[in-house]
Amino acid sequence: xxxxxxxxxxxxxxxxxxxxxxxxxxxxxxxxxxxxxxxxxxxxxxxxxxxxxxxxxxxxxxxxxxxxxxxxxxxxxxxxxxxxxxxxxxxxxxxxxxxxxxxxxxxxxxxxxxxxxxxxxxxxxxxxxxxxxxxxxxxxxxxxxxxxxxxxxxxxxxxxxxxxx
Length: 165
Fold this sequence. Notes:
There is one protein chain. By secondary structure, the protein is mainly β. It has one helix spanning 2-18; strands spanning 31-38, 41-48, 53-62, 65-77, 84-97, 114-128, 134-140, 143-145, 152-153, 157-164. It has one domain: Porin. 10% of the residues lie in helices and 53% in strands. It has an 8-stranded antiparallel beta barrel with strand order 1-2-3-4-5-6-7-10. The model is unreliable at 15-27 (pLDDT under 50).
């Protein structure tokens, strides 16, 4: 599994170093795809539906299970730093942990499949590398679940590397 992550990182790094002429300018993209890494490891697809509003689909591995989150984010420029913007948003999540494979933190010993769904908030920063198609960012995404583990997940934070087209 670790070799897959190393391979994905290598491919993204090769794309970044071989990019000669970028089509995108700051705020001039519609779709972004990328990877996340932090308390979770996974992928993300962000589609802008308005000038400042985007829908972000995240699928990631957490506590040896899988979680999917669908968020709406509102982006705002930081005028003092060209290429830097911040965003806030909200959405929903659904997670699943299979018996024998997942270890959600709210169980002592896994004896059944677990699922969790709930609402999320997100706040983050995104920076464009010198008007290229590559963006680096970080976010904090607290969530509240309504099933199996009814509590606040306040520790979900990660870095992102995205490519826009």
